[in-house]
Amino acid sequence: MGAGHRHELYLPGDSPVHRLPPQCKLLAVLAFAIVVVATPREAFWAFGLYAVLLAAVAAVARVPAGHVVRRMAIEVPFVLFAFLIPVIGMGERVSVLGLSLSAPGLWAAWNILAKATLGVVASILLAATTEPRVVLLGAQRLRLPSLLVQIAMFMLRYLDVIVGEMRRMRVARESRGFAARDVRQIPVIARSAGALFIRSYERGERVHLAMLSRGYTGSMPIIDEMSASVVQWASALALPAAALAVLGCAL
Amino acid sequence: MHVPDGFFNAATSVSAGAVAAAGVAVCLRGARRELDDRTAPMAGLVAAFIFAVQMLNFPVAAGTSGHLLGGALAAILVGPYTGVLCMAVVLLVQAVFFADGGLTALGVNVTIMGIVTVLAGWGVFRLVTRLARGKAGVTAGAFLAALVSVPVSALVFSLLFWIGGTAPVDPMAVAAAMGGVHVLIGIGEGLITAVTVATVLAVRPDLVYGARGLSRRLVLRDADGETTVGGTPGGADEPAAPRGALRPFLLGGVGLTLVLAGVVSFFASSDPDGLEAVAENKGFLGQASDHLFGSWALADYGEVGGVPVGVAGVVGVGLVLLVAGGLAYAARNRAGSRARA
C-alpha cells in the first residue's frame, strides 16, 4: 500500500496504541467484545465503565472523538430497529410519555444499543490505529488460514482500484444524463456490474501472471517477523482484563 | 444489513461461528480445486468486485432502494466454493476495517450472508440449468437463484433469531417481516444478477463458472475446405431445440414461484402484525417522528393487518410471474435469433 491508498478509517500516528503489534490488538478487541456481549443487561454502570475504558484507549491513541463519532454512522439502521423493538415487542406493557411500550422490548433495545455501540467503537479504534495490511499479518499470526489472509490482502490491495473503476463508470453514466429512478434503469446498472466483473477478473489474471513471473509459488514471503513481547501482550490485554474485572464486579 | 454485537446471545453466536468456520474450511479446500494456485489473487479480486457491487444501489419501488447481497452472483460467476470464500472475506473486511457488523456476530453474518445465500443460489441455479439448457437457462437460473437466495437468507436469520435472539419480538412476525421485504429486494437482486450474468456471458462466456458446459466445440477448417470437429468440452450443448428445453424451465419456474409465494403468504397470513411491521419499517420510519410519538397507536394494529397481507401477496406473485416470464421470453428470443443466424 503506497501513498494515496491510505484507508479512510486509518489514522496515522505514533502513539503507544499504534505501536502495539497487531495480533495483540486484534485479540484484545475480540476479547473485549466477548466480555461486553456476556455482560447482563441490568448492569447499567458496567456499560458506563466499558465506555470509560474505550475513551481512555482513544485518549492514549490520540484518536479525536469526532473521528469515532462520524464513523459510527454505520450503526444507524440497527439503531432504528432498536427503537422499533419496544413498540412491536411482546410482554407486559409500561406507559412511557403516553406511549404503551413493551417492558422486555425496552430492555432488549437497551441491550442491543449498548452492546452494538461498544462493539462498533472498539472496532473503529482498532481500525484507526492499525494499518489494514498489518491487521491481516496479525490475523495470520493468530493462525487464521493463510489462504484466507492472502485473499483478504489481495482484496484490500485492489479495493481502491476496483471501486475507483466503478466510480469512473458512474461518472460516465451520469455525464450522459443517466439517473437511476426506477426499476427500468436496473439493466443499465447491471451491465455496468457485468463490465466491472470482467475488468476485475481480467485484472486478477494479469496480477497472477505478473506474480508468477516474479517467482510466486502459492504463498507470500514474510519479510518482517512480527513477534510480540510479554510487555506488549500485557499492555494490549489490559483492556479486556479491565473489562473482565468490571464484569466480575457486576455478576 | 449486518448483524451487530449483542443482537444474538452468546451461545448462538458461538455455534454460528463454528458453522461458519467449518464452511469456510471446506470451501478453502474446494476453491483450490476450482482455481488451483490462482486462488489467492483471483478470489481476492472477485471479493473486491463483490464489495464494490454491494455499493451499487438499485431502485426497488417507490423511492426505496436496496443493494446487492451478491452471494448468488458470486456462486454463478466463480463457483460455489470460491463464492463462499469471497463473501466471507468481504464480511471479514467489513467487520474489521469498516466496523460494519460486530466481531462476535461475524459467524452469524458469514453463515447468513455468505454460506446460505451461496448454497441456496447455487442449488436453485443447478436445478434450473438442469431443466433448461443453453444461455436462456443460465440467465433464467441466475434470476431465480438470486431471487430465492435473498428471502431464504432472511428466513434463516429469522430462525436464528427464534433460537437465540435477544429481543422479545414474536419470531413469526420477524419471519414474515423479513420474508416479505426480502422477496421484494430479491426481485431486484434477481434482475441485476440475471442481466449481469447475461452481460458477462455475451462478452467472455468462459468466465461464467455456471455456464462452463455451454462452450462450443472447436471446429477447424483447413485449406481444402475439410472441417474437423474438435473435442467436445461440454457434451450435449447443441443450440438446437431451445423451445423444447424451455418448457420444463417455464413449468419449474412457475412452480417455484408459487411455492415461494405460498410459503411467504403462509407466514404473512398466520400473523397479520408481521406485515404491518414491514409497513411501519418501510413507511413510517421514513416519515419522521410524527407517527412514532404522535397519533400512531397500537390499538388498530391487528385489524388493519389483513389488507396489506392480501395485497402484498397478490402483487408479489404477479410481479414475480411477470418478471420471470418476461425474462424467459427475452432470453428465448435472443437464443432463437442466434440459432437462425
From TrEMBL, chain A:
It holds the Pfam family CbiQ. GO terms for cellular component: ATP-binding cassette (ABC) transporter complex. PANTHER family: SLL0384 PROTEIN. One of its GO terms (biological process) is cobalt ion transport. It is a multi-pass membrane protein. It comes from Nonomuraea pusilla. Its main location: membrane. CDD domains: EcfT (cd16914). The chain crosses the membrane at residues 44-65, 72-89, 109-130. Keywords: Cell membrane, Membrane, Transmembrane, Transmembrane helix. InterPro entries: ABC/ECF_trnsptr_transmembrane, ECF_CbiQ, ECF_transporter_component. It is found in: Cell membrane. This is Cobalt/nickel transport system permease protein. The lineage of its organism: Bacteria, Bacillati, Actinomycetota, Actinomycetes, Streptosporangiales.
TrEMBL record, chain B:
Its main location: membrane. Coiled coil: none annotated. It comes from the Bacteria. It holds the Pfam family CbiM. Gene3D superfamilies: 1.10.1760.20. GO terms for biological process: transition metal ion transport. GO terms for cellular component: plasma membrane. The keyword Transmembrane helix applies. Keywords: Cell membrane, Membrane, Transmembrane, Transmembrane helix, Transport. InterPro entries: CbiM/NikMN, PDGLE_dom. It is found in: Cell membrane. Signal peptide: none annotated. The chain crosses the membrane at residues 7-31, 43-60, 72-97, 103-125, 137-163, 183-203, 249-268, 309-331. It is a multi-pass membrane protein. Residues 247-332 form the PDGLE domain. PANTHER family: METAL TRANSPORT PROTEIN HI_1621-RELATED (PTHR34229:SF1). This is Cobalt/nickel transport system permease protein. It comes from Nonomuraea pusilla.
